[in-house]
Write a structure and sequence with these properties.
It is built from ten helices and 14 strands. With about 325 residues, it is of the alpha/beta class. The strands form four sheets. Strands 3-2-1-4-5-6-11 form a seven-stranded parallel β-sheet, sandwiched between helices. Helix 2 runs parallel beside helix 4 and helix 6 packs across helix 8. Its cofactor is NAD(+).
């Protein structure tokens, strides 16, 4: 099959590109490189440096099909930043995706896999301890709201034009390709695990832990960490599910780890102390987000290979030790 991956120079997108190649598919990447890295794209994979806000340029790429499907990862994704710039996030994420979906319909693409988010949940006080697909959608940030707007765009694209889609609402993507071909490198970096690893390695100053007074067992936030390679596998399995119908899955391990437990894991795996200091809560951060992945497992047989947090940390640490400056190395 021939697939187009938008945002394929970013963290999750680059790992999905590798998974597609490993499965024998032909892949091309569309990325404006505003946050992605050219060197995250394998040299034999075509890269179209295009801004999805430009409908004409986006449509031109879609005209270079046929494409058997599009996997969409390109988006603004910083929760705290979205609270400070809500209209920018709502406009940018929804309109760029609307351009892409419209171009897909115009050029006969039949399958679309969307990188959604667990940030759709957590805005309500009664958020369940394990979040299933039937949980109430109550975004806690404009970022989460923008992703839900996209899910509704895809609903109507299916209902009116027959564009089948899979919305994968995944929780905290973490880790790195076990073979060392790709890893996590954001500028700026806001994700807890790479920041913790960098603090342990002395690449960055002491970690700032946002919130130590949450209603959890140790006062810090609890998140479901899913290895990025397991996440990539879920995307490939979702492609097989949308031959006849659109689907929506929550993707995670079903196990939560607190921020303080992440620090302890990095210290165990690295053999180094992690310097850290407490900081005030960030707007938009719920106390706990843990997935119920039962539906995804039942429909596709998907099961994560990296269940233990230490396993995830080990792959992330190894990649960072080999790339202390990220992709700039």
């Amino acid at each position: 099959m021939r697939y187009l991956v938008t945002g394929g120079a970013g963290f999750v997108g680059s790992h999905v590109v590798l998974a597609l190649l490993d499965a024998g598919h032909e892949v091309a990447v569309l990325d404006d490189l505003s946050t992605g890295h050219r060197s995250a794209v394998p040299p034999d994979v075509p890269l179209f440096q295009v801004d999805l806000a430009n409908y004409g340029a986006t449509s031109d790429i879609m005209a270079q099909g046929p494409w058997d499907g599009v996997l969409h990862f390109a988006a603004l994704s910083l929760v705290a930043d979205s609270v400070e710039r809500p209209f920018y996030y709502l406009r940018r994420n929804s309109l760029t995706t609307l351009n892409l979906v419209e171009a897909c319909v115009a050029h006969g693409v039949r399958k679309f896999v969307f990188s959604s988010t667990a940030a759709l949940f957590g805005g309500a006080d009664d958020c369940p301890s394990l979040i299933s697909e039937t949980a109430s959608v109550e975004p806690g940030s404009p970022y989460g709201e923008s992703k839900f707007m996209i899910e509704r765009i895809l609903h109507w694209a299916d209902r009116i034009y027959g564009l089948r889609s899979a919305c994968l609402r995944y929780f905290n993507a973490a880790g790195a390709d076990p073979a060392g071909r790709a890893g996590e490198d954001h500028q700026p970096e806001t994700h807890l695990l790479p920041l913790t690893i960098d603090a342990a390695l002395g690449i960055r100053p002491a970690l700032r832990l946002f919130g130590t007074d949450y209603p959890t067992h140790d006062g810090s936030c609890i998140r479901d960490y899913v290895h990025v390679s397991d996440l990539a596998d879920a995307h490939l399995k979702a492609l097989d599910q949308i031959n006849e119908r659109s689907v929506c899955y929550n993707v995670g391990t079903g196990r939560g780890y607190s921020n303080l437990e992440v620090i302890s894991s990095v210290e165990r795996v690295s053999g180094r102390d992690v310097p850290w200091e407490a900081a005030p809560r960030r707007d938009g951060d719920p106390a706990q987000l843990v997935a119920d992945p039962a539906l995804l497992r039942a429909d596709t047989g998907w099961a994560p290979q990296f269940l233990e947090l230490d396993q995830i940390v080990e792959t992330a640490l190894r990649w960072r030790e080999q790339h202390p400056q990220g992709y700039d190395d």
